[in-house]
Amino acid sequence: MFLPLQDLVSTIMQMICVSPSPIQHDIITSLPEILEDAQHSEMARELSLNLDLGLLSEVRQSVMVTVAAVKMEDLPVVVKFVLRSIKATDAAEVLSDLRKKVDLDSCVSFPRMQASQNKLRSQLPASLSASQVSLNQDCVKLLFEVIKSAVKFEKTVLEGWVKAIEDVSSASDHKVLDLIVLLIIYATNGKSKKQIERVLRNKIRLGCVREQLLRNAFRSHSLVMRDLFPAVLSLAENFVHSADPCVVSFGSCLYKQAFTAFDSYCQQEIVGALVTHACGGNNIEVDISLDVLTDLVALHTSSIAPYAVFLKSILDYMENLSPQQIRKLFHILSVLAFSQGHKSSHIQDDMHMVIRKQLSSTIPKYKRIGIIGAVTMVGSMATKRSKENGQILERAQLSKDQCRQITSLLELVCSCCGQVPEALALYYDELANLIQRGSLDLQILEWMGNIVAKDFEGDFVTDLVATDDSAFLFPVKALYSLEEEESEATIAINLLPLLSQNYLFKNADEIAAKSKDKRLVSPLCLSPFFRLLRLCVSELNNGICPLYLTSLEVGGKLDSLSKHERDFLCSLLFYALNWFREVVNAFCQQKDPEIKGRVLARLQNITELQSLLEKHLAANPGYIPPPANFDSETLEGLPVANTTGASKKKGKGQKHAKSDTSKSRSEDSSQLEENTEANQPESESSQLDKDSPDKGQGTPLVQLQSYSPYFRELDLEVFTILHSGLLTKSVLDTEMHTKTCEVVQIGPAELLFLLEDLCRKMEHALMPAPAKRAPFLKGKGNRNVGFSHLCQLTSQAVVEHAVDLLKPLCNHVENMHNYFQATTAENHGVVDGPKVNVQEYQLMSSCYQRLLHVFYLLFAWSGFSQPENHGLLKMGLHVFADRLKPGERERPLEELLSQGFQYLVNLKSSVPSIYCALSLTRLLLVIAEKSVARLKKNEIASVTKCFLCQPWVQPNGARQKGTQFNDALHTLFCIYMEQTDNILKVIEDISSIGIPELMQSKDGYSSTYPTLTRQTFPIFFRVMIAQLENSVRSIPSGTPSDSNEAQQEKLLQWNMAVRDFHILVNLVKVFDSRPVLSVCLKYGRLFVETFLKHGMPLLDCSFKKHRADVQSLLKTLQLSTRQLHHMCGHSKIHQDTGLTSHVPLLKKSLELFVYRVKAMLALNHCQEAFWVGVLKNRDLQGEEILSQASQTSEMEEEEEVSMIASEDPVEEQRQEEDTETEDGIDLKNSDDSSD
């Protein structure tokens, strides 16, 4: 029997009236399924639910008050009502209130708490709590279905949710609800995907949405997140593509959490996506995907094992992987291969086949892959402990069969590499890295140690006896022994004889034929083999033996040597330096003062040999050094000697080729390039070269930084040497009795050597990824050459090392501070006094700059923004704070930042160069940015102004100058302008004080601002006019509703800005170089455009009340536009394409200015004040351009504005015109008409 629709409604109403409350609730909530859509309004009317908008708003407000107390099963219905009753005008406000009151955490935490309480009473409620949790999860899922439906069909709700979430500014205020809602919008609305990505990226960068929030979402609401899996996967893929490290880290966390929480289908999709990233060719994506896979293999070994077949496919793309990426890949596959026993034998077989195939290849690239893969595989087979399924497992002792498999694999690698020195050296390095991890089985380690010690002694160590010099290219001499008496040294490293053998027998087959052993003994393997030896043997002989070299003091004989002999000497020096570097690596952590003293002596040997090598390289252009790092391709570009003489000759040729006009401007042309960071190490080093005794001999200058890939890598442990203060070194006699005692300490040259290397390492490890991306078409892998050991550490590990070094680094900084203060006091404040040691001063200055740069690199690390690294940040700042107030233990972060900032500010009085000043300023900025208050702007502005007011004289009496000095000055001045409170006042001060002093000075610089010279004027001019244009953008546009005081304040700001602009533009009459003209044309147009956009609306509404101020402002601006016209004419006459390219857009802006002023006058009923006149073209100095004066008959009329008829009118010239007409307004008789 079917009731009519009307009868059905009345019957239901009767049932509701007589039913108890629980049944009423069930009936009403079921009505949408019972009734048809057409009956909903009638039923709502019967239930009195069809409310008008005003009443509906009141009901919603009443409901919102009770949302926090609503039962979980009723919450979806309540939220649905709220979402359907929202209006566009209050959507963001209502949803912001709703997200605060909906607490999803209680859905998980409350049943658990209730269960723990009930468990004490009886065991029965435990099952009830489980059902309660299940019910709550269902209700949460239903709640998000309600939200999903609302954002899918209601644009108002969607926009309101996004706005409400965007307005949350604190990480503690963000909820799991926010993240899931954003994912729902991303999944349901294709048009909003880009917007949601942008919101999430911004929140992640600001630290508002953190990885812990993501983990909570997956842990507590896995069912909801499972439904959003496509959105999760898409977001993860897009975030991994990002250039921001924080966003990339969040994307990798999405992958890991999804793999942990979801089913096998999702896991397979995730592994497939990661494999796609790994095979895509983008280095950042490859690194991230392999890192994620490494974590998954360690934490969920059994879960990821079924997908090993997908991971094996990456082996086909190893050509595109870097050495470190190959290590990660083979580690992943090895863990899977040897953790599942016989189940994963197919992975072992495939890996063995790939490794044998690569090892047998004659192509070096593939042989390298085979070596890295084999050693990585050995590491997994012979490890004492492994991490599987998130647990550290101690493995049983290797069986004889397992040992045999491992040793046979190592012997296979050795036999395949024995005749290729580069491959053998890589094999030694990879084995050394494996041993350094400390998890290799003792049986394998002992087997290696015995073979390595025997082979190294037989290959490279020889008795110190007389040799036959005729058999070698140069006489053999034992050098750099650390024994006091030559007779005490009994052994030496056989370097020169081996190198001579290589040079005398160029054919490798011929050398192999003469060798009785299967391995080829090459000096290339000396340093890698020693590294392997010292890591195999726990304790080495404390004595450090001498080297077989030759007499290295060749003086002026270099030119008389043949190319072959010069190459030999350069190679000998490279091998000797790399040997010393490995010796320092080996003994740097020894506690014995004797050994510490010898390590410092080896550092001194390194700095001496480097100075010698620079001379040899300068005399041997085109020389290719022997490789020192063997896991990458040979560098494509070779270092080029930068000869001073050649550059001077080139400069002279250019001068003869140019006209007098271009000569006068060429000085400034390089000074207005886009600002780049001053490369201080190069500038300081070049200055040291200029001050060296060889300067007058025309010797080419060679920078060893460009040869850094050809030196062995120093371990991070080497920098523990910086802890060394004064060391007492005992010199023993033949009977081991103390003969004398010497006090040794690290010198400036050795300190500089260590600091330069530390800077390079920190720049490589901590610099943001976008800044480190290789240039277009640059060979892959080149960026990591020389950083193989560093690349195996995380950036967090590098920061931990750096924080540990802060105390000794602060000691060195304070020593530098005291040195320069004492030097200044000793010479009565004169830098170039007679008692100043120029060479020592430059070395100390370089060390000072590197120390400040190390601090900057450490505290600029982006990882400090992540909560898990806040402890490291506080540890670092605590070191600074303790230098001011020692003894205090726990201090809040803000206090540590303030005290650290003050400690660094105290150093400002001793900085010796502008490069140190720039490093200190950047460091202060980084520290200030980490403070929530950010109240240090005035102090930073004061410090930078102090630096700008210093003359920066070198110890030889010359002022610092050059391109790098200009770059540093540009950056420093920009920071000053950005940090100062009143940019307009600063511009006015420099323009009215500094520049007039410069124009009147006979010395060529301003007395108030000594950095302002004729050479640096274009830098000051560019920064001032750019900052002026940028500052006026922040002046609000005027509106008719503004008060009289507000209008007057804005007019005052515009009057100051226009006055500054007028001063700057008129400086072109004096400083008319091409860079100044170009900058003025560019920023002059931008200033006029900003005035039209923000200034003219203000004049529209304030003309009647503040006529005198408006008149003065326009009059001053017209004088500036006149000069801009003169510049346009100048550019056209000189036919300079670089300048004329700015003219059309400038002309358009000036024309718009004319018509906009005319519109403003019309708006204020002053049309009759506008009049037209005729103008002539003039040059920069205002002189008439005669060549165009005769063409007045061909001119076309053009409008221009002048506020006072008696004044000279302002020119307004069209691009195609040679003469002009002028419009003007006379306000004297316009009082009545303007009312």
UniProtKB/TrEMBL annotation:
Residues 647-656 have a biased composition (Basic residues). Residues 1208-1224 have a biased composition (Acidic residues). InterPro entries: FANCD2. It is found in: Nucleus. Coiled coil: none annotated. GO terms for biological process: double-strand break repair involved in meiotic recombination; homologous chromosome pairing at meiosis; interstrand cross-link repair; mitotic intra-S DNA damage checkpoint signaling. Residues 677-686 have a biased composition (Polar residues). GO terms for molecular function: DNA polymerase binding. Keywords: Isopeptide bond, Nucleus, Ubl conjugation. Residues 642-701, 1186-1235 are annotated as: Disordered. Belongs to the Fanconi anemia protein FANCD2 family. This is Fanconi anemia group D2 protein. It comes from Phrynocephalus forsythii.
